[in-house]
Every structure is written in structure tokens, then in C-alpha cells.
Amino acid sequence: MPAWTDSLPDAAKAYLEGRRLDEVECVVSDLPGIARGKAVPASKFARQDYFHLPDSVFYQTITGDWGEAAGDDGFIEKDMVLRPDMSTATAAPWTGDWTLQVIHDAFDSAGEPIPFSPRNVLKRVVELYTAKGWTPVVAPEMEFFLVARNTDPLQEIKPMMGRSGRPAAARQAYSMTAVDEFGPVIDDIYDFAEAQGFEIDGITQEGGAGQLEINLVHGDPIKLADEVFYFKRLIREAALRHDCYATFMAKPIANEPGSSMHVHHSILDTATGKNIFSGPDGEETDAFHHFIGGLQSHLPAAIAVLAPYVNSYRRYVKDHAAPINLSWAKDNRTTGIRVPLSGPSARRVENRLAGMDCNPYLGIAASLACGYLGMVEKIQPSPEFKGDAYAADEDIPRVMGDALDLFDNSNALHQVLGEDFARVYSIVKRAEYDEFLQVISPWEREHLLLNV
């Protein structure tokens, strides 16, 4: 192997041991979380310290269009400088040759971070914590569906066929038999994850037909966001090997639960390494309550980031394992903000609002931003909710347009995430929303065509 590979992470070295590296995929996450970049021969990668990519990749909508009014001087597509973060180098074990993936950070020509690059947005938020002497720790949970191939968008999405020859069944949460139905896909997920050096904390069957959940071990927010970014591709590739699709849509199948990316948060005192959510005697601290208060106060404006598409809002339905409000409680999965059972050192806050369709960098950044504002502003939460939160009032935006209005009017959130990011994000999301509103749905044709 070439000399530069000596600095690779251990998993990447093990993957390449005794083999000739053919190609390196130089990637960056766009706003939806799609990997953009270039694939280059390994010999060329060894000679380059950076490469260029137009900043228009961050103005691209999920449909491949671009948001308008990109800046005060118009849409001129400036070149960015993308530099590799070699700590992210990992295998692409589904490829036909020996390939590595490397996440790159985006800078402008003056060497300043591109403010609307999702990874840079998360770095900005983490740096705000660092400046306060805090170290944020997160643990994301990834829910997704394995579904039958769907090549015609006019057809409904259906569960995949299991090894028994029957479609995946719904309402089989935590069933080991149901997990076994997808055994070959799961085996490839484990194999790919091991080759990439990722540690899976567990895989379970969720309540939807063909719905699975993967839990990751808690750690650094940027590292975990990198892993979720990689995992989405890894899982899709494993599914394709077995004639099915993996989808991370928030609500792919009507009358089934949606897919979330629950995020667990704890904050350490950087100097002592102790959890600031717990006091010397294990009691709940002001920081703990202020973090919850920040989520309650600022999540309404952040929903546009945690639920980035029109489909996202179909997930917020009562009694379908998704929150409908911002109540908080201990060990209560009907609330939007949950405090899991734990000892004082592991006390944490779970944000249950983020959909699995959100960009992992932006979803984690927005969630941390809300908690940060709560601790800085010393926001007190509402009293702990008792009972079934589905019986309480809804206070989550139900449509994308309302969520974007709240986001656009949140100066506090813009200050934490970055004003340039907020501007670009709103431009792109409003372009997507406007495009959706131009589509006439089958429901409208069925019920309005001859009846109104």
C-alpha cells in the first residue's frame, strides 16, 4: 500500500491489507444528506491535498433542481475547496474493486468553512459547546423500512418478501422471528459495518411491516453523524443485494408507523468528564432542566430541519409511535422529549421528533442547538407530563410551510446554526415545497374531479 495509507483508521487498514487500493471516493454531504463528490484513482488521490466542487451542490433540491436567489450577487456557482478528513476514511465493501470513501470538509478560497455545508454547521454548534467548557455526547437511533422494489412512483410502497416467502408482517415489534425474516440483508449490514469499522449496539424489529431499528453506541456528535451518513448508503447497498429497497422516508407506508432518528443527548463537563445533567448526589441539575426547556422552546422552529420534507409531517400521528407535542417525561414514549431510565452518570435526554429522513449532521446540530439555547438562556421546562401525551394538545407544525415560517422567524436558532446556513436552507426547502404544491395527487383526482 502507498505510504499515505499509514495514517488510515485501523478498520480501513485491515480492509486493504494485502490488497491494492484502486479508487477513493471523495465525498461531502449535501443538504438532503446525499453523498456528492468525485471518485478518483488511488494514485491521483495520493497526489492531491484537495479538490474543487461548485457550491451549487448545497443549493440543490431533493428533485435535482436548484433554489433561486442564491446570494446577493446572484447564483454564480463559486468553486469550493474540499479537503479530506482522513479520520473518516472507510471501506466501500459493496464495490467490485478495492475502494475507500473519505468525507471532505468544504472551505472557500480564503480558507473559511463554507457556512451552509451540513458538517460545518454541526462543527459550529459543537464549537459553541466547547467554548462553554461542555462536551456534547449523542447516540442516534436509526429506523428504516425494507420494502419491495418500487420502480413505478404511482404504485404504493409494499413490504419486502421475507425468507418465508410471505410479505413482512406489521405489529411484530421486537420479534426475533421477524428479524430472522430479513436475515440475509442483516448479515450483509453487519459485514459491511464491520468492514467500515462501525460498532452496532443492536438491531431490532420495529412495529411497521419490514421496519428495523439500528442503535449506535454513544459518542462524539460529528463522528456519529458521519456514521449515520455512511450507514444510510451501507444499508441501501445491502438491501439492493437482496432484491429489495431500504427507505429512510419518514412515512413510506400509509397506516404504518413512521421512521424516526431519535437522538439521545448528554453533556459532559470537559474539565472533569462528569455528566452535567447530574449533581454530586445524583440529583437532576439546572442544566438538565434548562436543556429540556430549550428543546421545548426552540424545537418548533427547528422542526423544519428535523422534518425536512412534506412527507415528514405524515409521521406526527397520535398512537403511531411518533410525538404530537413537546411534552417531556421520564420513561414515557408518548412524549416528544423523553428521559430514559438510567443511573445518574448516564442521565440523558431523548429527542423523539427527528425523522430518519433528516440530514444527520443537521438533525443533530439543530437538536443540540435547541438544548444549548436552553442552557444559555436558562429556560425552565414545563412540569413533567403525567399520563398519555397523545391525549394532550398538539403543538407541532402539521405542514412544511408552517414549519418554515417558524424557522425563518427564529433569530436565536439562526445565530447558533449560522445565518448563511439558515438563508440557504430556507431557499432550498421553499423551492421543494413550491414544487410539491404544483403536483396534483391521486386523492384530489379521485374525490374532487367529479364531485365538486
Automatic annotation (TrEMBL):
PROSITE patterns assigned to the protein according to its UniProt record, in alphabetical order: GS_CATALYTIC (PS51987)
Record bears the keyword Ligase: yes
Cofactor(s) listed: Mg(2+)
Residue ranges occupied by any GS catalytic domain in the UniProt entry: 118-452
InterPro entries listed in its UniProt record: Gln_synt_N_sf, Gln_synth/guanido_kin_cat_dom, Gln_synth_cat_dom
Biological processes annotated in GO: glutamine biosynthetic process; polyamine catabolic process
Molecular function via GO: ATP binding; glutamine synthetase activity
Family: Belongs to the glutamine synthetase family.
Name used for this protein in its record: Glutamine synthetase
